[in-house]
Each structure stands twice: as structure tokens, then as C-alpha cells.
Amino acid sequence: MLLASGAAAAQETPNPNAPTANPTGAVTATQATPPADPTPDANANPDPTTTDTGVGEGTDIVVTGIRAGLAKSADIKRRSTLIVDSVSAEDVGKLPDVSIADSLARIPGVTAQRLEGRDQRLSIRGLGPDFSTTLLNGREQVTVGDNRGVEYDQYPSEFFRNVNVYKSADASLIAAGISGTVDLRMLRPLDQSQRVFAINARGQMNGIDNLNPDSSRYGYRASATYVDKFADDTLGIAVGVSATQTPSQNERYNAWGYNGTGTAADPYRLSGAKPYVQSNELKRYGAVATLEWQPSDNFHSTFDALYSKFKETQILRGIEFPLDGQARTADNPTGTVLSNTTVENGFLTAGTFSNVFAVQRNDYNRRDAENLSLGWNNDFTLGETTHFNVDASWSRATRTDFLLETNTGTGFAKSGLADTVRVTQNGDGTFSFAPTLDYTNTSIFKLTDPQGWGNNGTQQVVQSGFLNQPKFKDDLKSLRASLNGEFEGSVVKGWEVGANYSRRKKTSEYTSFFLCPRGAGTNCTLASGTPTSANVPAEAQLNSNIPLTYLGIPAMLTLDPLYLYNNSLNAAFDGRPGSLVRDNTVTENVYTGYAKLTVDGEVSGKALKGALGVQAIYTDQSSDGQIAGLTGGVVTIAPANEGAKFWRVLPSATFSVELIDGGYVKLGASRTMVRPRLDQERVTQDVSISPGNIGVQPVAVNPVFSSNGGNTSLRPYQSTNVDVSLEKYFGSGGGYVALSGYFKKLDDFVNPATTIPFDFSPLLSALTPAQQAQAIANGQQIGTISRPDNSGRGDILGAEATLSLPFRMVTSALDGFGAFVTGNYTQSTIRYANNPDPITLPGLSKWTGSGTIFFEKWGFQARANYRYRSSFLAEVAGLSANPTFRTARAEAILDAQIGYEFQDGPLRGFSIMAQGKNLTDRPFITYNTGERDQVIDYQRYGRDYYIGLTYKF
Questions:
Q1: Reduced to 3 states, what is the DSSP secondary structure of residue 888?
Q2: Buried b vs exposed e over 709-734: b needs ≥16 C-beta within 10 Å?
Q3: How many CB atoms neighbour CB 351 within 10 A?
Q4: For residue 147, how many other CB atoms are within 10 A of its CB?
Q5: Residues 6+ apart with CB under 8 A from 566
């Protein structure tokens, strides 16, 4: 894909035979949609590869590849009123970028956070993935992720002709987001001029050698696409298949945090650390099919199907060192002791910790997911200018995780041999470790719970490992109908009314187990006689022990965690209230009605196009789950069901005026909304009853009753938006300059954790009569509930700039060279009602930029891209894989590629390409907010190299 930014919705004199509500419809010169079609296709220009050079009259140059992609995207932008950024494929089945997210991260106002070395979590105009929605051919999609944000790995990128990121609203754009709406567009076979059969194969190598002996740094990617037309070009089919095996290697460092106040007497001290080496392998298989039938000018039917199945395995091995976080005190006589310290500028840069009981980890994670999306669109012509359109779709995703931890140490609960560890700060903010013990010695290290951390809520368990097995199912069915037509003899050219019904149901199920050595005892409890340790079986030991030399550790015991799970460990169900209460189902029934008028004409001699519209949305949302609590060692569970119903009205207006030849002013104003995270709408509550707090002052901070959970009455985020874009185009070869500004006033912003008083009188029966009387006397039947609410308010202000410049527009001597440059600045102020200090929006970088230079001529192609983003609040996996937020350092990443396509002879249609990704080898780094020296996460993914072959028959 290649990218260009701007506004998208091809604008031509309306064709009386053209539908407007068809979310799968193509935008072509012979089948143009009326103004402000919210889902235009990249093929808006009937022949965008034949372009005016801008350097001479009557000179046409046929271009392909990079320049063709630029021409397509610029053509969509130029003829639109909606503000949009487009990414267009250079050819059928040919995507130079590694993923869709890679391409989108280069357009203005869009940034990506890397997960496992891959661009994944997109932010649009400073707002993270929770504030945008993703469509497939104009239809809302479900996700294999935990919430609403789509994970783009679930979509094989070879299947898409173009991707549009809409940043302004239109009444007929259903399920739009606040920050933007990403629309993935599959190709339409009837738009192709000839039969296409293309095959692609690509090999991959990670620049870091295998960090784990049971992993590989080599991968591949293969795809095939077939497109053809039959029955006098009234029936078209497009079929594609794809297979991918993507490896990644990750040198990881994670700090528990830092103790101290930053003075010479009380310097910042590392409380603990978890250095790991991680090897990932993503296997994905996908298939797509499109059947398009247009037997007459009065009927057009399109059926789409997309299936994707992927399996990702992750191997992690490392050592967790409890350090100053377990310092020896009167209350902790077995804690660590710090000596031989070096302090610089209030920071402990070196020191020796004794009495360290490290936890050695050999972990295995696996994710299996499937995604199915079906859509059927039918458009009927009822008269010369009237169309009736019906669209039905079904999107379904399932995911099952297997998250296995295994522990080894010198003895149970700090009863074994203690280590002495020298820690030294590195120049990048991480620490190196020099242990005294040999961590590969199986006569010292056993299967055990080295820290004695295991507890099932009522008593201690021997936790030699832990297993999480969450399951997610996301199902969305939708039915849409619309009617549109035209007016005669008026600047108001068209009208459209429609309705959409959708039902989304997401089910989350969580099951977890304590793992302990096999033998006597029940449920892994210590009191029942569960063995506190067991020898490491020889069969579990791999042939070589891996080093953690990047942090100074010579070697660690390298085991097969699956062998341990299947042969050496018993599993005990985790019945803690906090574990049981996580299961839930969230259901949303949404009814949307909309109406709009389209404008196309002249005002004072200037071309004016646009749309005025409104949406009315009725929501019936509910959640099923349970409320769990623990009192006197007894877990109580009660089913729960709650819901809410409400209306929202969302007006919108967009206008485009061509003030000079090729010079446009585009304006947009709208009211938009996006629904909160699905886990925030859950009904489940984890109730805690603490009889020991009866009579303890102050009662406000020592509640007898407290609860934590979701809020079924949570309303969507809402935003009032103003957008403006100034654009000047140079010829029709993809050259332009654009400057855009945007303002968003946010309300009903979700505060994820508001604490409010609540009357727990119905639960007083859990206390003894004497406790009840004392609690009531102290007013302690009133406890606290922590849950999300809509108490946030704020605004976002930003500007974007884009320059797309084929250098032949400057001089014909530079024909084939070009550049595409973008920049963005965003600032925000968001406040919660219970906190006057503004928060930092997750995913917001104040400054972002991207620059691409390229050469393409005579079959040769070369390109380099450099993108930058300033520091931002990143979402990372915290304790027990729960999401948490930390400040990420600024990063700049360089990618490059070079290739050649044979132009004639027996190899005509054959091309070869070499790519390099993350050539700067930039790590992902987070730190404590406001303290850049306090590094929390450091993840180095290495460079990735690719060699690809393509043959187009």
C-alpha cells in the first residue's frame, strides 16, 4: 500500500443510476455516487494511473506502483467533502508494508504503538483505539481483542484494495468513532478491466538470533489472488488465500518500581526487576471471496466473505529478582539487605543486595483465534433517480488463551539458599545483574513457590505455577436499509433516509488454576500436605541453557513448561471472588435512523459540495454476570443482570468550496459518539467484607463493605467537532499540499475509577449480630463502590500538514522521484470531576511526523520512510496480564525497501523486493511519569528483513 491523506468521497455530477447507501459500492466514473458518499472506493478515478504531469500541456504518463497508489489516494481526497486519509494498494494482492497498521501509522494524525514488535494499537488525532471504530466494506466489525479495539493482525493485508480513515462525520456513516473511523475496503471484481491472477511469496528473518532454543527467527508470507468476470461482464468473482508465519525476538526488561525520595540520604532504589527473553511466532491463515452480480442497470448484488484463523505462541524465560521492594525491616526479618552502594544525583546506580530469593520463570503463552465476516448488499433502482438498498452482515470472532507460568527456586517461601546480587545501572536506564548462584544447577533449584506468594483467598497454597485460560466470543449482526434519490434544478441535489439495526454480544469467560508439585494434599493447599517442592525432571530440561547476557546474567535453567504442566504439576481451581467475578456477557441492541441532504452546485461562481444530516440512535444495553464476595472464608456468588436504555441525536454538516482552480476549503461540524470499553459496561462486582474494620477510624478509608466492578448504565463518550482543511492540488499526478485543523469538545468522558458511597445494608446479614450493631452505630453500613462513570470533560486541539510531491512537477529531470511528508501537533486537556488536575490521554503524542522519499522508474523501485512520535501514555500488560498505562519514550523508526519488476520478455509480470523494518533498532521504553530515569519497561525487538517475489499472470 501507499498512502496519501485528505478527504475522501469522490465528487462528480451525480449519476441517476448510482446508489448512495451501498457500503460495498465502488466509486467510478461510470457509476458515480452522489456527493458525500461516506464509503468511497480507491477506484474513484476510472484510470488514476494515467496522470497529468503538471509540467506541460497534453502530456500523459502511465504510472504504476508507488505513483499509482499516490494518484488513487489523492484523487479520492480531491473530490471529497469528508476529511479522510487514504491508503491505496499499488496493485492487486501487492502490499509493500508488512501490515495494515504499518501503512496507517504513516498518515497524518495516526500513530501506532508496537506490541511484540508489530505496529498494532492505533491512535487517531491523539485518541487511542477505544475512541475509533473499524469497518469492513462499510460494516462495523468485532475483534479478537479484549474490548472493542480491533487487532489488525486478524486481517490479512493482501486482501484489501484500500483503507480509508474518516476524520469527519456523515449521517450515513454508521458506527463512526470520535477520533476517526477506519474502513477496510476489499476490491470489487466488476471494477477490474481484465482477469488477474497474482501470487506472492516473502521470506522473513529477525535481526536478533534465537533467544530461546525452541524458537525460530525465520518466517514466511504467501498469498494468491484470482479475479475474473463472466456472463458478459455481469458476474464477477474475486478469491484470495493467504498464509503467514511471523517470528519475533524480544529482549525484555521490567522494573517493579522504585523506592525512595530522590535525595542523597534516601535515593531512588530499584525495588525489583524481571528480565526476560521472549520469542513469538504468529501463524495466520486467511481466505476471502467476493461475488458481484449486476445483470441490469436496475439491480446490483455483492456478497463478501472473509475468514481468518491465527495462532500465536509466546515463549518467555527469565528471572524475577525481589530487591529493595523486600528490604529487611522489623516486620520483614527475611528481607533483602543493601550494601556497597553508589549514588549519583539522588539515584542508586550500583549496589549489592543480599538475602535475595529469586523466582526463575519458564512460561508458555498461546492464543488461538478465528474471525469470520459475511456481508450481502443489494441495490435496487426504483426509478430514474431513486434507489433502495438493503445490506445484511454478520461478524464473529472467537479467542482462547492458554497462559502458563512455571516457577523454580531454591526453596519454598524463602526457605532455600539465598543469593547475593550486584546490580549496576546501564546507560539506557536498565540494570545489569551479577548473581552469585548458578541458576542452571538443578541440585539447588526446584519446582516450588520461592516467595510463598500463593494464596487462594482463605489459606496458603504452594504456587509452583499458574494457568490462565480466558475465552472471548464477540458476535455482531446488522441489518440496514436506505432509500435515496435526487432533486431537480436545485443546489440541493440529493436526499437519503435510512435505518440500521445491530445486535452485539460479547462473552468473556475466565478460568484460572494454581499449579503445585504432584504428590499428597488437595487443592494445592499447604495445610493439606501438598509438597512444597519437587526435583526438576531431566525430561523437562532442554539441550542448552539460555543466557541473559544483555543484562549480565550468564545462564538460567531452560525448561519445557508444557512438559512440566503435563507431567509434573497438579492444577487446583482458582475460586477467589476476584477470579470468579470476571465472567460476563455484554449485549447491545442499537437502532439508528438517519436522514441527510446532499449539496452540489455553484454559489457566487464557486463550486460547492457537501451534506447536511442527522442520526437518531436508540440503545438498549445490558449485562449478565455475577457478584462475588468472601466472608469468613466462605465465597458467596449471586447472579446479576442490569441494563440501561437511552437516546442520542447526532447532527453533522460538511462542505467543500473550490475557491481557485485546484484549491479547496473544506469545513465540517458534527456531534459524534463512541461507546465505552465493553469491560466497563459489565455488571459484575467483586465485593469485599472486612469485619476487622468495624470501628476503625476514619471510617471513610476503612470501609467494612467495598466493591469494585463495572457500570451497566455507562453512556457513550460524546464530542462536538469542528474541522477545517485547506488543500491545493498540482495537476492530477498525486501532488498536493494540505493544512488541516481540528477541535473536539469532549463530554461524558469515562472516568475509569470513580469511588462513590453506597448503602450495603442488604449485606449486613453476613456479619454477626454484635458486628451488625457496631457497624450501624458507626455508619459503616455505608461503604464504597469503585466503578467507571461519565464524569470527565475536556477538549482536543490540533493541526495536520501534508505535502505530496512527485519531483517531476519541479523538473522533468527528476521524473520518478518523489516525497510524501506529514506532520501533526495535538494538545488536550481532560479533567475528571473528582480530580482537578488534567489527565494524559492514552496514546496521545503531541508531535508526530512521517517522511517518505521514493524513486520508481523503468521497473526499479526504492523507498525509505522515517516516522517519529513524541512521548505518550502507552497501554501495556500489567500484573496478571491486566492492562495498565505507563509513559513511553519518544521513538523514531526507519523502514526501507528496494525492488525491481521486469517490464518485458519471458519474465514480464515478475518482481522481486527486499525490505528492512525498524532499521534504527529502536527499543520500546516506558518510565514512571515525570521521572525519565526510572525506566519500567525496555523491549528490544531488533531489525526485520524481508525478501519477496511476486508474479502476476
A1: strand
A2: bbbbebbbbbbebebbbebebbbbbb
A3: 22
A4: 20
A5: none
CA distance 818 to 815: 8
116: three-class secondary structure by DSSP? coil
Q: How many CA atoms lie within 13 A of 481 on its CB side?
A: 2
- Please check whether residue 467 is in contact with residue 403, taking contact to mean a CB–CB distance below 8 angstroms: yes
Q: CA separation (Å) from 571 to 85, 466, 533, 562, 875?
A: 51, 8, 15, 13, 31
Closest CA to 706 of 752, 751, 760: 760
Other Cβ atoms closer than 10 A to 835: 12
The C-alpha atoms of residue 379 and residue 734 are separated, in whole angstroms, by 32
With a cut of 50, say whether residue 324 has pLDDT above it. yes
Would the pTM of this model clear 0.70, i.e. be above it? yes
Q: Which long-range contacts (CB under 8 A, 24 or more apart) does 828-831 make?
A: 828/126, 828/794, 828/795, 828/796, 828/797, 829/794, 829/795, 830/746, 830/749, 830/792, 830/793, 830/794, 831/792, 831/793, 831/794
**How many CB atoms are closer than 10 A to CB 854?**
22
For the segment 493-551, what is each residue's pLDDT rounded down to a tens digit? 999 999 999 999 999 999 999 999 999 999 999 999 999 999 999 999 999 999 998 89
Q: Does the pLDDT of residue 116 top 80, yes or no?
A: no
Compute how many other C-beta atoms are within 10 angstroms of the C-beta atom of residue 519.
Answer: 12
pLDDT tens profile 723-758: 999 999 987 778 999 999 999 999 999 998 888 888
603's grid cell: 454559489
CA–CA distance, 184 with 88 (Å, rounded to integer): 10
